[in-house]
Amino acid sequence: MRDSVRVLSTALALSLVLTVPAAAQRIDSPYRFVDKKRDLGPYVAYVFADGGAVDLGPNAGLAFGARFGIRVSDPLQVTANVTYFPTDRDVIDPSGPNAPEKIGTTPSNLLILSGRLQLNLTGARSWNGLMPYVIGGLGIVFDTSGDITCTGGVTDPTCQILPNERFEFNNSFVGQVGIGTAIIISDRIGLRLTIEDNIWKLDAPPAWITLGPDLPRVPPESDWTNNISFGIVSSYWF
User: Fold this and answer.
1) Strand pairing of 189-203 and 222-237?
2) Which residues form the signal peptide (predicted)?
């Protein structure tokens, strides 16, 4: 009987010795592998647009769009973005008695098409549900508002200044750099938070260059501006 008790006691002690270290080794990792390679979703962003040296360019406002991304390696993702930025811009008279004087606003509805490379800093894994990244991209931006025809009955303030004084948002290449993070909510659903700089060019109207010596501020012929945006993206992974 005593031998049986000793055997049982020894077996119990050994089981405790063996199981405690094994339990201590089971440490939950903050990293989780994300096996889905593609994601698609809409987004909204607020753009702090830079009007340029003399505030001829677009004003700040909300932008809307969609993105599609595909992971081509553990850290690298390629994305395509379409952004619609409906805003307005100031119309400024450079030759009136109070020049330069803002005389109103006119629509400036921008469409941006771009392709990007995204470097995921944690590779194909999330860290505590987050996947931080940096982005760089190129694209084109153009104004979809169309030309203003100054005929009878047109009240747009652009028609109050001379043709060579009127600013036009010409098609421009756009460079994009930024940072962000994906927030993994479930296997297929997530969000992205982004901060981006969209760099595009504003061309000065000819009269602004001619009148330069008589103006307090003179725009460069080509003014590359930084337009910072803060965005949130809804993502579906598949």
Assistant:
1) antiparallel
2) 1-24
pTM score of the predicted model: 0.85
Q: Which two tokens stand for residue 146?
A: 């169309």
Residues contacting residue 141 through CB under 8 Å, at least 6 positions apart: 110, 111, 112, 113, 171, 172, 173, 174, 198, 200
Query: Each residue's pLDDT tens digit in the chain (238 positions)?
Result: 555 545 445 554 555 445 545 444 567 899 999 999 999 999 999 999 999 999 999 999 999 999 999 999 999 999 999 999 999 999 999 998 888 999 999 999 999 999 999 999 999 999 999 999 999 999 999 999 988 888 877 889 999 999 999 999 999 999 999 999 999 999 999 999 999 999 999 999 999 988 877 788 888 999 999 999 999 999 999 9
Domain coordinates of the chain in residue numbers?
32-237
